[in-house]
Amino acid sequence: MESVLEDRARIGVPDAILLEDYLNESVFIDNLKKRYQQNIIYTYIGQVVISVNPYTDLGLYTEDCLEKYRNVNFYEVPPHVFAITENAYRSMVAETTDHCILISGESGAGKTEASKQVLRFLAATSLHRREMDRVRDRLLQSNPLLEAFGNAKTNRNDNSSRFGKYMDIEFNFKGDPVGGHILNYLLEKSRVVHQEEGERNFHIFYQLLAGAPDELLEKLHLQRDANNYFYLKQGESCTVDSVNDRADFEAVDHALDILSFTTEEQEAIWDVVGAILHLGNVAFKADDDGLARVKDETPIVNCSKLIGCDKDVLRKALTHRTIEARGDIVTSPLNPEQAVYARDALAKSVYERVFNWLVVRLNHSLESPESGRKTLLGILDIYGFEIFDKNGFEQFCINYCNEKLQQVFIELTLRSEQEEYYREGIEWEKVQYFDNKIICDLVEEKHKGIISLLDEECLRPGDATDLTFLNKMNSHLATHNHYFSYETSDNSKDEFSQKKRPVTAATQFKNSLAGLMTILMSKEPSYIRCIKPNDDKRSYYFDEERVSHQVKYLGLMENLRVRRAGFAYRRAYEIFLGRYKSVCPATWPKYNGPAKDGVMAIVQHLGYHPDDYRMGETKLFIRLPKTLFLTEDAFQKRKQELATMIQAKWKAFVCQRKYKKMKAAATVLAKHWRRVLAQRLRVRRKWAVGVVRAFVKGFITRNDPVNPTNARFQQLVKCEFLLRLAKSLPKSVLDTRWPDSPAPCANASAVLHSMHRTYLARKYVKALQPEKRAMFEEKVLAEQLFKGEGQLP
Ligand SMILES: Nc1ncnc2c1ncn2[C@@H]1O[C@H](COP(=O)(O)OP(=O)(O)OP(=O)(O)O)[C@@H](O)[C@H]1O
After folding, report:
1. Ligand 1 neighbour 150 (Cβ under 6 A)
2. Is 386 noted as a catalytic residue in this protein?
3. For 654-692, how does the pLDDT look when each residue is reduced to its tens digit (9 = 90+)?
4. Which H/E stretch holds residue 69?
5. CATH number of the domain at 569-623, please?
6. What SS3 state is found at 572?
7. 569 phi and psi, to 5 degrees?
8. Angle 20-558-9 (CA atoms, 0-180°, nearest 5)?
9. Cα–Cα distance between 65 and 86 in angstroms, integer?
10. ipTM of the predicted structure?
11. Dihedral through CA 511, CA 515, CA 517, CA 518, nearest 10?
12. Predicted TM-score (pTM) above 0.80
């Protein structure tokens, strides 16, 4: 962060806590805008990342960029989702605590893109070993698969997630990703049967029709044109420029293989997707009694073939209602409207089950084979908040979910920040903020909240409609400050009453959210707050009014005020001491005193200014990132020194070990060689004595003394080797024969040794293996000797 401070006049401040006028919302937004216009989409508030959707590829996620953010301090690099991910990852590994990254923002703000980059960054932390590559590929391939089945084009976003996703990535003690687990929340299944104007069904339907090979389509009795299918053409938007269904089908196909879906499983998936399309084409007409009759048998036949059920059973299931009452099964015929409802309910339910099964199956693929303690890093990409204009049940749930997330944000950052200062006995200026608990209570409070009222309404005898439900809410909630009534028509087929068992749907969702909140609360959170700069999906266009609205409901100004009034960093004394004890001689290498005193010693050793920190009951509080940054730098420097020391010790140890081994080997070799030499010498001497005797005998016999001044003789005598050999001969060989004549004796000795030299050379060259020659360095000697052959007398 410090590295980019000098540019602040041009590109604003990288962390909003550095803004002079930090209470002013327009200054805050202006900072975001300034940066956005310079293609800088990320800005911090402390450790919360604000991301403004650029709607264009700015080259922010290249491999180089990914490397740039690896193993670096959060404050050393410009703001980025990679930086916050690296920070969470490093804390997770260093402190072996579970973390989570919460990504929020309205639909189209860039949550899914951010979550993909977070996952990519984490998956790439592994070493490139085969097993790790397998895990990484599976983690990454889960995305295209879930997106195909769970995302759709909406008017706000061409690739909108229509389900909530929480993914835990599991790491082993070395920090390698070893597996993962996905939790999915409330799929917007109503989209299967109905889409708003300009919107599409889930991507997978279009992908199958556009990308499947002809044989597969034929097997599924499908035609390529999506306009042939009732469920795909209601939004009148079968093709979207920014979506390539054909290529995406291939990606899904590839993902299924990587995730080891069997051929049977893959076929079953396509059968069900095809069956839903056929089911949508089942139309009804009224017979004379006003009861439902199927207009055309073909879709029924095709659908029943694909789902493996008898066509008559399917037809009956769509046109009749079966009720079990006190052990009796009663079947009653439906009118065409009711049959359409039954058809749609079946399609939605089948699709939802396929989706849930996919997640279960994915989890099976992502299961870690490693046992032992794993640390978790969760990524939450929940559906984006949408302005409440559709009045749909799912829309209500999505917004309720976002309110709950805001609760977690308030709980974990704002309130806990204030409570922590209080608990730790730290003086600070209390900041007021809007607590949305009142909104959450309005929705979820037992017996009084909207969900309880909905459950009651659906359970009571008689027909429940939107209007009856609205009346109920009006009578119970009219005085609530945050309740606004709305208008509805008395329509018995409306959204709420369509939930045949709404008590389960709404309460189930409430319960699953409560479970999610528990998971999130048990982890160290990091935040990515996504902002949508405009409603037109336009790049380089920053609509200040739209941004201001989001800044407000995301509570960013409150977040900034709390952050600015407080401390940027806090850590339990034990953790801080554990990390930084090496920087201070008083705490290194051994320290047995209380952690707080140890931290105090470190702080004093590093020369913190008294205003820059506070010592709480159990934690150290550091006001500005700069101070922490300096501490981290000192630690990194010290780490280098320690690493050098360890390296030197290790190198010395390795060298010593090597030296000892060599010495032992040399001793063995020397012993061996001495024995070989001694043996050879014995043989040589024996041979030489024999030859000398024979030669001297012949020499004496011929009485042909060699002239000692002869040049060749001189040359031979000069040969050091011969001299040495001559010296090694037993004098007695010659002395006994020639006691008074040293010259002929020397001459005889020289001639004798020349002969011996030739013999030896030949013998060596023949006998010695090249490597042996090299080993004992005899090769050179032997070659020299061999070359000298022509000089023999
Ligand atoms: N960082 C980014 N860089 C480039 N384009 C982006 C980025 N973030 C988002 N976009 C563009 O904006 C579109 C919408 O983003 P995304 O799907 O992530 O929104 P979302 O918040 O997940 O929406 P929803 O809640 O509807 O799922 C993407 O399809 C992409 O085109």
Report:
1. no
2. yes
3. 888 888 887 787 777 777 777 777 776 676 666 655 555
4. none
5. 3.30.70.1590
6. strand
7. -145, 140
8. 25
9. 13
10. 0.99
11. 140
12. no
